[in-house]
Each structure stands twice: as C-alpha cells, then as structure tokens.
Amino acid sequence: MKIRRNLITIIGLILFFVFIWPIRYVHAYPPPQKVTATSDTVQVWNFTLVYHLEFWNVGALDPSGQYSQVSGRAECTSNCNGYGGDEFTGTFSGGPNGEFIIGDLSFNLIRGTYTTVFDTLRVDFTVDNPEAFDGSWNIETDFLPKQGVDGGLVKGTAQFSRNNGETYEDIPSDGPINIREGDVIKTGPNSRFIIKYPDGSILKIKSNTKVTMLFQGVQIVFGETFFNLKKQGKTFQVETYLTVAGVLGTSFGVSHLEETNETKFDVMEGSVEVTLPDNGKLPLSPGDRYTVNGDGYEVTEFNYTDVLKEETELIETELAQAELNDNGNLNTDESDTQGYKENGTKTTPFRITPTILIFIGVLIFAVIVVILLKRKK
C-alpha cells in the first residue's frame, strides 16, 4: 500500500512538472529575435542614401527592458564626397505593429513587413526578415479586431483583394463580407461601401475610392471617405501618401486626389492631429480644412454642419441597406480564419492552451496535496 502511494505521488509530481513548468515560458509573443529593415534609395541633396534599422521583434514588450533599443544608420551609396552617413538610436514598442520613436519621429511598423517615415521626405523601409514576427502576438493594441469586422455595399459596385491588390473579387450586393487587416477595398462610380466596427464606429468608403485596412486604422490610396468614430483609449490612424493623422474619436472626412497628389482633411466633430510635412504635429478642430500637397499645406475654414448632419442621419439607413447587424462582426468561423492565414494575412488565435494547462496542473497539485495529507493521518 505504501509503495502504491509513493508511486502515485511520483507520477503526480512528474505530471505537475510536465504541465506546469513549461508555463513559465508561455508569453503573449514569440521569443526575442533581432530584426533588420532597409529603406529604398533616397536622394538627399547630392547624396544617394540607403537607411538601415536594427531592432528586436519583442521590443519593450519584454519586461527585462533589454530589447527596446533601436539603432540605425544612413549609408551613402553614391556622390558621397567623404560623407560617411549618420547614426541614430531610438526605441521600439514591440510586435508586428509596434511603434518606433527616434528623436522627434514617431512611426509604426505595419504587419511586421514594412514601415514608412514622414520627415522632410518620405522614406519607405522593408523588413529583411519578417519571419521574426510569425506566431501569435496576443497584445491588445489593434483597432481592427483579429477576427475582422463586417462591411457591406450600400449602393453601386465594389471589389476587394486579399493579396495586396494583385487580384480582386466582386463584393456581393446581397449581404456583408468579413473585412480584415491587409484587405484592399475599391469602389466603383456612384458607389458606397460601409464598415461598422464593434464599438459602433463607422467608416464610409465613397465612389471611386481605394483603401487598405490597417490594424490601427485605414490607408487611403485615393478617393473620398467619411469617419464617425467613437471615443476610446486607442488611436485610430488614417494614412495617405502625404500625411498621417491620429484620432481618438470624432467625425471627419478624408480625401486624396491621385492626379494632383493632394490630401484634404475636413474635421466636423472632435479633434484630429495631423503630421505636417516637416514632421511637426498640428491639431485640427471642427470647421478646419487641412489641405496638403507637394507645395506645402494650408488650413482654411468650411461650413461643416450640413455635411455632418447629412452623413450622420444616413448611417442607420446605410447600415440597413448593407445588411449589417448590431455587433459589426458576423464572421466568427475558424475555417475562415485559416483561409486568411493562407492568403498571407496574419491573425492571432485565442491563447487557450496555457489556460487549459494551468487548470490541469492545479488539479494535479490538489490531488498530490490530498494524498500527502492522507499519508500523514
């Protein structure tokens, strides 16, 4: 009998270490790995430069603090005249959509693959080893949920792409489709597509418009949009080729004319902060119209009350026409998640495995305690 009890105790301890001990190594992100990114060729005065970034995938997410630093350098490739290039340092918040802060510059990594810096000129970086961001990143920094949101046609025609615009499919007019990070949406003439986020925020994509859905907002390639965003702790980001704007909750319109390379922000409610061509920040209030192009920028006033009234009054009607329900997220099918993963859009699964292992471990530990107490009796 005593041998049997000892055997049960030993088996219990073995199971405890098998299930519980590995939990120490379960994080909300993959192991630390060094990442490098290289820019396109940039012409600065007479110099031809290529910029390099070096940082860690986990950044400041790791509590040790040893992976948050970013180092960079400018490499002169031609017409150098003795110029060896500058070096610079900064910090990285971590994750496939983490934030870089280098001096006065602040910019985000996009899906672990690329980033764009707006300074006195635009610099596009491509990550050399994006596989460093593979795996699950269970960090709540996204505005666009991992499972996506739903959008539907209000009128006209629209197409969507899940391979970065290489091929497009027609969006059906008989119900909503699930929209996720990286999807490209393109509307036709006299058309409108509407997206409803889980918190009730609304994005209207108007006629002849092309946008890319980002984890933290939207990139407008060309065309016209309207936003009605609820106030929350996360910043919604709107990008065009010329500028980036951060929004915490407001109603505003954004358009970008590809022919003239001009971006326009019309603020109707709340406030919007835009990044200026010199990388400064400019807050905009209701009635402000911010226009930026290759010649610079200007802020003028416009009468926004009629536009705001019309757009907000139409929201419920347009949601009904697009057949969107209240939660703004109809598609929860796991097989569809796999489909997006195969098409190159990363999704983060719910990390249920550590919870199950902890529960099993607690049960095993409780059984061991009961056995030991009985032995003492």
Automatic annotation (TrEMBL):
Segments of this protein annotated with the region Disordered: 323-345
Domain of life (superkingdom): Bacteria
Alphabetical keyword list: Membrane, Transmembrane, Transmembrane helix
FecR protein domain ranges (all copies): 183-273
Keyword Membrane: yes
TM stretches of this protein: 352-373
Name assigned to this protein: FecR protein domain-containing protein
Lineage of producing organism: Bacteria, Candidatus Gottesmaniibacteriota
